[in-house]
Amino acid sequence: MMKELFGEFLGTALLILLGNGVVAGVVLPKTKSRNAGWIVITLGWGIAVAVAAFVSGNLGPAHLNPAVSLGFALRGDLDWSSLLPYVIAQFVGAWVGQFLVWLQFKPHYLAEENPANILGTFSTGPAIKDTIANLISEIVGTFVLMLTILSIGLYNMQAGLGTFVVGTLIVGIGLSLGGTTGYALNPARDLGPRILHSLLPIPNKGDGDWGYAWIPVIGPILGAILAVLVFGLF
Predict the structure, then answer these.
(1) How many whole angstroms separate alpha carbon 166 and alpha carbon 146?
(2) Which is it for the CA torsion 15, 215, 170, 62, positive or negative?
(3) pTM for the full model?
(4) What is d(CA 212, CA 130) in angstroms, rounded to the nearest whole number?
(5) Cα separation of 99 and 6, whole Å?
(6) Closest C-alpha among 48, 43, 23 to residue 33
(7) How does pLDDT run across 134-185, given as a tens digit for each residue?
(8) Packed helices 38-56 and 161-177: angle between N→C axes, nearest 10 degrees
Protein backbone atom coordinates (compact mmCIF):
# COMPACT_ATOMS: atom_id res chain seq x y z
CA MET A 1 0.00 0.00 0.00
CA MET A 2 2.78 2.44 0.87
CA LYS A 3 4.43 1.79 -2.49
CA GLU A 4 1.18 2.60 -4.28
CA LEU A 5 0.66 5.77 -2.25
CA PHE A 6 4.21 6.89 -2.98
CA GLY A 7 3.49 6.29 -6.66
CA GLU A 8 0.37 8.48 -6.50
CA PHE A 9 2.29 11.18 -4.65
CA LEU A 10 5.32 11.15 -6.94
CA GLY A 11 3.29 10.89 -10.14
CA THR A 12 0.97 13.75 -9.22
CA ALA A 13 3.95 15.90 -8.20
CA LEU A 14 5.55 15.33 -11.60
CA LEU A 15 2.21 15.94 -13.33
CA ILE A 16 1.84 19.37 -11.73
CA LEU A 17 5.52 20.28 -12.03
CA LEU A 18 5.55 19.69 -15.79
CA GLY A 19 1.92 20.66 -16.47
CA ASN A 20 1.76 23.93 -14.60
CA GLY A 21 5.42 24.45 -15.46
CA VAL A 22 4.55 24.77 -19.13
CA VAL A 23 1.71 27.16 -18.26
CA ALA A 24 4.09 29.30 -16.20
CA GLY A 25 6.60 29.34 -19.04
CA VAL A 26 4.00 30.53 -21.52
CA VAL A 27 2.18 33.02 -19.28
CA LEU A 28 4.73 34.63 -16.99
CA PRO A 29 6.88 37.54 -18.20
CA LYS A 30 10.51 37.35 -19.34
CA THR A 31 10.65 33.57 -19.88
CA LYS A 32 12.10 32.17 -23.11
CA SER A 33 8.75 30.49 -23.85
CA ARG A 34 6.60 33.56 -23.19
CA ASN A 35 3.49 33.71 -25.41
CA ALA A 36 4.25 30.32 -27.01
CA GLY A 37 0.51 29.67 -27.11
CA TRP A 38 -2.24 27.17 -26.40
CA ILE A 39 -0.81 24.35 -28.49
CA VAL A 40 2.41 24.43 -26.46
CA ILE A 41 0.36 24.25 -23.26
CA THR A 42 -1.72 21.30 -24.46
CA LEU A 43 1.36 19.43 -25.69
CA GLY A 44 3.13 20.15 -22.41
CA TRP A 45 0.21 18.80 -20.40
CA GLY A 46 -0.03 15.67 -22.53
CA ILE A 47 3.67 14.98 -22.03
CA ALA A 48 3.30 15.73 -18.31
CA VAL A 49 0.58 13.09 -17.96
CA ALA A 50 2.60 10.50 -19.90
CA VAL A 51 5.82 11.15 -17.96
CA ALA A 52 4.03 11.08 -14.61
CA ALA A 53 2.27 7.83 -15.48
CA PHE A 54 5.44 6.18 -16.80
CA VAL A 55 7.37 7.04 -13.63
CA SER A 56 4.64 6.06 -11.16
CA GLY A 57 3.19 3.14 -13.13
CA ASN A 58 5.68 0.65 -11.68
CA LEU A 59 4.76 1.71 -8.16
CA GLY A 60 0.98 1.62 -8.46
CA PRO A 61 -1.94 2.17 -10.82
CA ALA A 62 -0.91 5.78 -11.61
CA HIS A 63 -4.38 7.27 -11.26
CA LEU A 64 -2.94 10.70 -10.32
CA ASN A 65 -6.49 12.02 -10.13
CA PRO A 66 -9.17 11.64 -7.41
CA ALA A 67 -11.92 11.45 -10.04
CA VAL A 68 -10.14 8.55 -11.78
CA SER A 69 -9.58 6.79 -8.45
CA LEU A 70 -13.28 7.21 -7.65
CA GLY A 71 -14.16 5.76 -11.05
CA PHE A 72 -12.07 2.67 -10.45
CA ALA A 73 -13.54 2.29 -6.95
CA LEU A 74 -17.03 2.37 -8.46
CA ARG A 75 -15.91 -0.30 -10.93
CA GLY A 76 -14.64 -2.47 -8.08
CA ASP A 77 -11.02 -2.17 -9.28
CA LEU A 78 -9.93 -0.15 -6.24
CA ASP A 79 -10.84 -1.05 -2.68
CA TRP A 80 -12.96 1.68 -1.13
CA SER A 81 -10.68 1.73 1.91
CA SER A 82 -7.84 2.83 -0.40
CA LEU A 83 -9.73 5.73 -1.97
CA LEU A 84 -9.13 8.36 0.71
CA PRO A 85 -5.40 7.53 1.12
CA TYR A 86 -5.01 7.75 -2.67
CA VAL A 87 -6.73 11.14 -2.74
CA ILE A 88 -4.59 12.46 0.11
CA ALA A 89 -1.40 11.27 -1.65
CA GLN A 90 -2.54 12.94 -4.87
CA PHE A 91 -3.23 16.24 -3.13
CA VAL A 92 0.10 16.22 -1.30
CA GLY A 93 1.83 15.47 -4.60
CA ALA A 94 0.00 18.38 -6.24
CA TRP A 95 1.19 20.72 -3.48
CA VAL A 96 4.80 19.59 -3.83
CA GLY A 97 4.71 19.83 -7.63
CA GLN A 98 3.24 23.33 -7.52
CA PHE A 99 5.75 24.45 -4.89
CA LEU A 100 8.53 23.37 -7.25
CA VAL A 101 6.91 25.36 -10.08
CA TRP A 102 6.93 28.42 -7.83
CA LEU A 103 10.62 27.89 -6.97
CA GLN A 104 11.52 27.37 -10.63
CA PHE A 105 9.76 30.53 -11.81
CA LYS A 106 10.09 32.70 -8.68
CA PRO A 107 11.85 35.64 -10.44
CA HIS A 108 9.15 35.60 -13.11
CA TYR A 109 6.37 35.62 -10.50
CA LEU A 110 8.04 38.68 -8.97
CA ALA A 111 7.95 40.35 -12.40
CA GLU A 112 4.26 39.58 -13.02
CA GLU A 113 1.72 42.27 -12.16
CA ASN A 114 -1.44 40.59 -13.47
CA PRO A 115 -3.19 38.50 -10.77
CA ALA A 116 -5.06 36.44 -13.40
CA ASN A 117 -1.80 35.34 -15.01
CA ILE A 118 -0.40 34.29 -11.64
CA LEU A 119 -3.51 32.31 -10.71
CA GLY A 120 -3.52 30.71 -14.17
CA THR A 121 -0.20 29.04 -13.41
CA PHE A 122 -1.78 27.40 -10.35
CA SER A 123 -5.33 26.51 -11.31
CA THR A 124 -7.85 26.70 -14.11
CA GLY A 125 -10.44 29.35 -14.89
CA PRO A 126 -13.18 29.90 -17.45
CA ALA A 127 -12.75 31.98 -20.59
CA ILE A 128 -16.35 33.12 -20.07
CA LYS A 129 -17.92 32.69 -16.65
CA ASP A 130 -21.13 30.70 -17.01
CA THR A 131 -21.74 28.28 -14.16
CA ILE A 132 -23.77 25.71 -16.08
CA ALA A 133 -21.62 25.83 -19.22
CA ASN A 134 -18.41 25.69 -17.20
CA LEU A 135 -19.67 22.71 -15.21
CA ILE A 136 -20.72 20.92 -18.39
CA SER A 137 -17.27 21.56 -19.85
CA GLU A 138 -15.54 19.83 -16.94
CA ILE A 139 -18.07 16.98 -16.89
CA VAL A 140 -17.70 16.29 -20.61
CA GLY A 141 -13.91 16.53 -20.62
CA THR A 142 -13.55 14.14 -17.69
CA PHE A 143 -16.17 11.81 -19.16
CA VAL A 144 -14.03 11.48 -22.29
CA LEU A 145 -10.91 10.95 -20.16
CA MET A 146 -12.41 8.28 -17.90
CA LEU A 147 -14.28 6.46 -20.65
CA THR A 148 -11.12 6.25 -22.76
CA ILE A 149 -9.01 5.03 -19.83
CA LEU A 150 -11.55 2.28 -19.14
CA SER A 151 -11.76 1.41 -22.84
CA ILE A 152 -7.97 1.06 -23.15
CA GLY A 153 -8.25 -1.88 -20.76
CA LEU A 154 -10.27 -3.75 -23.38
CA TYR A 155 -7.28 -3.91 -25.74
CA ASN A 156 -4.19 -6.06 -25.54
CA MET A 157 -1.59 -3.33 -25.88
CA GLN A 158 2.15 -3.60 -25.52
CA ALA A 159 3.54 -2.40 -22.19
CA GLY A 160 3.64 1.39 -22.07
CA LEU A 161 1.51 1.97 -25.14
CA GLY A 162 -1.60 2.66 -23.08
CA THR A 163 0.30 5.31 -21.13
CA PHE A 164 1.35 6.98 -24.37
CA VAL A 165 -2.26 6.88 -25.59
CA VAL A 166 -3.49 8.60 -22.42
CA GLY A 167 -0.89 11.34 -22.89
CA THR A 168 -2.11 11.81 -26.46
CA LEU A 169 -5.69 11.83 -25.17
CA ILE A 170 -4.89 14.74 -22.85
CA VAL A 171 -3.56 16.70 -25.82
CA GLY A 172 -6.74 15.90 -27.75
CA ILE A 173 -9.04 16.95 -24.92
CA GLY A 174 -7.08 20.16 -24.50
CA LEU A 175 -7.22 21.04 -28.17
CA SER A 176 -10.88 20.12 -28.65
CA LEU A 177 -12.53 20.94 -25.34
CA GLY A 178 -10.03 22.76 -23.15
CA GLY A 179 -10.46 26.29 -24.47
CA THR A 180 -13.55 26.96 -22.38
CA THR A 181 -12.33 26.28 -18.83
CA GLY A 182 -8.71 25.18 -19.16
CA TYR A 183 -9.72 21.50 -18.77
CA ALA A 184 -8.89 20.73 -15.12
CA LEU A 185 -10.26 17.16 -15.36
CA ASN A 186 -8.74 16.52 -11.94
CA PRO A 187 -9.76 17.88 -8.51
CA ALA A 188 -6.24 17.50 -7.07
CA ARG A 189 -4.68 19.23 -10.08
CA ASP A 190 -6.88 22.29 -9.55
CA LEU A 191 -7.80 22.55 -5.88
CA GLY A 192 -4.38 21.54 -4.53
CA PRO A 193 -2.42 24.30 -6.30
CA ARG A 194 -5.27 26.78 -5.71
CA ILE A 195 -4.88 26.25 -1.96
CA LEU A 196 -1.11 26.72 -2.26
CA HIS A 197 -1.70 29.93 -4.22
CA SER A 198 -3.42 31.36 -1.15
CA LEU A 199 -0.46 30.43 1.08
CA LEU A 200 2.61 31.44 -0.93
CA PRO A 201 4.03 34.97 -0.59
CA ILE A 202 3.57 36.16 -4.17
CA PRO A 203 3.19 39.90 -4.85
CA ASN A 204 0.16 40.94 -6.92
CA LYS A 205 -1.37 37.47 -6.73
CA GLY A 206 -4.92 38.57 -5.93
CA ASP A 207 -7.47 36.04 -4.70
CA GLY A 208 -7.97 32.42 -5.69
CA ASP A 209 -11.36 32.89 -7.43
CA TRP A 210 -12.93 30.65 -4.82
CA GLY A 211 -16.42 31.22 -6.17
CA TYR A 212 -15.40 29.18 -9.21
CA ALA A 213 -13.22 26.63 -7.38
CA TRP A 214 -15.97 24.05 -6.83
CA ILE A 215 -16.53 23.53 -10.57
CA PRO A 216 -13.13 21.86 -11.32
CA VAL A 217 -13.84 19.56 -8.35
CA ILE A 218 -17.48 18.57 -8.82
CA GLY A 219 -17.36 18.54 -12.64
CA PRO A 220 -14.61 15.90 -12.92
CA ILE A 221 -16.25 13.76 -10.23
CA LEU A 222 -19.58 13.80 -12.09
CA GLY A 223 -17.83 13.14 -15.41
CA ALA A 224 -16.01 10.10 -14.01
CA ILE A 225 -19.21 8.68 -12.52
CA LEU A 226 -21.05 9.15 -15.82
CA ALA A 227 -18.23 7.44 -17.73
CA VAL A 228 -18.37 4.42 -15.41
CA LEU A 229 -22.14 4.16 -15.92
CA VAL A 230 -21.79 4.32 -19.73
CA PHE A 231 -18.88 1.86 -19.74
CA GLY A 232 -21.09 -0.56 -17.81
CA LEU A 233 -23.25 -0.76 -20.95
CA PHE A 234 -20.39 -2.13 -23.04
Answers:
(1) 10
(2) positive
(3) 0.96
(4) 10
(5) 18
(6) 23
(7) 999 999 999 999 999 999 988 888 878 889 999 999 999 999 999 999 999 9
(8) 150
